[in-house]
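Page header: ASSEMBLY MODEL / two components / 613 residues total.
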Amino acid sequence: MSHEAAPPRGDEAQPVRARGLVKRYKDVLAVDHIDLNVRHGDVYGFLGPNGAGKTTTLRMALGLITPTEGTVELFGHDPLREGARALQGVAGFVEAPRFYPYLRARKNLELLAALDGDGAAGRIDEVLDIVELSPRAGHKVGGYSHGMRQRLGIAAALLRRPRLLILDEPATGLDPAGMRDMRALIRRLADDGITVLLSSHQLPEVQELCDRVAIVDSGRVVYEGALADLRRQGGAGYRLRTTDDARALDVARAQAGIERASVGEHGLGFEAQEQHVGELSLALAQAGVGILALTPELATLEDLFFRLTEGDNGAMPQAVEVA
Amino acid sequence: MSSVAASPAALAPARTRRPSTFTVYRWELRKLISQKRTYLGLALVMILPVFFVIFQDVHQRHGHGLGNIFAAQITQSGLATPVLMLLFLSGFMLPVVAALVAGDIVANEDGNGTLKTILTRSVDRGQVFAAKTLAAMTYAALAVFASAAVATAAGVLSWGFHSVTTFSGTVVSAPKALLLVFAANAIYLIPLFALVAIGVLLSVATRNSAAAVVATIGLVILLFIVAQIPGLEGIQPYLLTEQLQNWQGLLRTPTDWAPIAHSAWVCALYGVPALFAAYLTLLRRDVAGG
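Prediction written out in full:
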């Protein structure tokens, strides 16, 4: 990492670029040399089990805590050295969004808008409309439900007209409808050009929203790259139904490049790269086995996540990239 | 959250026009105003002078008041009431009221997680620190002057707007006495602000509102005890609690500036390092609360 050229600054710089981030609390290594590369337009999933170091990393990214080692830059600016200036165009929340319970929602937003400057106060009605809290804007936040506070957190973030939105578990604690609405909102914001860094352990949420991911485990990045690549490289599975599954199994086992072949209730299952699948279909035809159906079964994010974070990652790609 | 009314990210990159520290300070005051507990301390220091005047009035009518040297002085003029109240409240009650806000002002936000909310906006930690410290000092000053105003009004209503006798026995006119009363309260703010600085330091360092308030009050009590320990008379002039009576020099004729000047630098020795340490602590520490 020390050999890299200095990153560009300003608008062309990456929204998030972390290098060798370490956070140690006495004997506990919470974050262990994490590199992150969030690019313009990404909806970037930051995945990991509880305690993996996601929130600590996001706190360092926002300048709330000091890394023990390493650097993080937002659009080329270091929040630790440059303070609030580095957060220009950046918004979001870490853990749950927090507000003053004794103030009304609108008053909370007025306060935050005052701390943002730059005409943020004039956008309060707009952001309340976006998160559909306008009818409850006059109520004290102390009486808000968890879901309403999450939405108010998004509204508070949007006041800053962010180019980068950092959201830490935004759907946690929401009911199914609330989760659906939150995903739809994040999707719309991303479609509007906001880069999103989404920390989550809700795998369906990440699978639905994100195009690139970093998976962390025990403070280390075990995968960073495109979600599609991860799923493709994570072992493409196939399901095959034939006129003679037992004979097909023998043929498959004898065929190079076919792995984990087994016969189950729904026919023959195996893993292989695409070119080996073609060779298998020819071999089956030569063996007089008719193919009734051949369907690809991409590994789910959940499969991959558990393989990466629970030790079974021998077959997994190590696509940690450096921008 | 079904429709995006206007594209939030149409959102050209934000221009740089960051808020001033005064804006942050103004919002710190608004937060204080919005909390009920803010009024408890103020109410206490405003009600006490009223009770005091009523009590003195009753005693005077029953012929007991004149036996007390302060009561004898107070009945000369309503303007002596705020002086007597400052004498009573300056040692402990006003420091307690000031500590309630100073000890709470950072720790409370840290505990509730709102500190991270404001630190991820467009203001620097230094601005937040300055605004919070100024707000705590403003509150302390408000408590002092509110108490003085109520005491003056209650005293004047009971005993009239007359000349008063100062500590040195000189009689001063009513208008001058009124000026001296408020000047004395202003001088009293010097040690009180030093105490506020210590309260803010404890608020930043402990991250616990109750601990910071109790520790600030505990420090006042401790210094009072130290002042009573035989053999430690030498350090007595340098104890912060001793400075809480510095304002009395103003109520002598001619004005005794020596204790006021002494108090100013002693208080600076307490307050400035405390503020500096608090600032550095807040600047460098991890904000992980809430």
